[in-house]
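chain below, 281 aa
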Amino acid sequence: MSGAETPASGASAAAIELRPTAVESPNFSPASVSDEHVAPHTGRGALLRVAVVLSHTSHPGNIGAAARAMKTMGLRDLRLVNPEAFPSDIATARASGATDVLDQARVYTSLGEAIADCVHVVGSSARGRDFVGEVSDVRTASHALVDATAQGRVALVFGCEMSGLSNAEVARCQTLAFIPANPEYSSLNLGSAVQVFAYELRMAAGATAGLVAPQFQLATQAEIDAMFAHMEAALTDVGFFNPQNPKRLFPRLKRLFNRTRLEREEVDIFRGIFRAMQGRR
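prediction:
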């Protein structure tokens, strides 16, 4: 691979359309102005300081897929270095509703410009390089990126689809990170790789809130004891249990129920079953 940073086939610096956006200052947050009060190095604040940089992306659909992956994990700052086609209807379609990330994306003519405001840069690569810096897995690298957001903006850089990062691009990264995939088939498309990194960044930032299981009132020990007494009476009434020859039936049943956390409604259900059993004698 050449050490020079060359545009992808069919693209040149002159051909890149620098789209006017609200992003002008290195201190700009890609979030809305109301997000500026969010503290960095915390869940949401840390994620807003992470820039995802796609270098020389050849297919606009991968830009859209990356935008979608970013938005699902709370990342907003997308930066593009010499994309072959952008803006693009294909990118918009693949973004599946994450068009706000695309609308705020900035286009650059070199990686150096894209990461100029970043204090820590991680490059993604699926293969080893002659690289003198740090090499780590995606999880370790994500924690390091989140930690560095306390000092400023950070960047996660992905190379072109066919050849990845150039040697010159790798040299601009403090860390080279890999996804520990199946060594016999480690190929991931660009959108999938961005999704894995975005997920790990979200976990590293502690943004783990999600679905909460409904909470029900647990049964008291007195209610459980009454259920067992009712169970013994019902099983005796139907001839299943012989109090004169109990064997180990109830110790086993109690052990079975004690492995669960019985809820009050569940106890009531069992008591209803026992009443029905006794009513059929």
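Residues 76 and 100 are 8 Å apart (CA to CA). Residues 1-37 have pLDDT under 50 and may be disordered.
thats it, cya
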